[in-house]
Amino acid sequence: MAKKMTRAALFFMIGTVILTAFYEKTAYGPVLSLAITFGTVSYHLVMRLLVGGAFQAVMQNRADLYKRWYRVGKREMAVYKGHERNKICCVTITP
User: Fold this and answer.
1) Which string of DSSP letters, residue by residue, matches 55-94?
2) Residue pLDDT, tens place only, 14-50
């Protein structure tokens, strides 16, 4: 999976560079939209790879979902319950 994501990130980065250069040369509007889309996708893929690599370096694949760090705290539960209450009380219009 990591190889596929790395290849996809590389593909979108190269696509961003090519489309940006093409837009600079031609000033064709749809190419700018494609360049922005490719840039956004490549940014998200690269960030996902970087964060995953940093997490792997720090945790050494020892993430235990039962440890205290990963548990939902009392304050978080209060926030979730508050959101549920607001969903019930909201006025909605059905068409």
Assistant:
1) HHHHHTT---TTSGGGSPPHHHHHHHHHHHHHHHHS----
2) 999 999 999 999 999 999 999 999 999 999 999 999 9
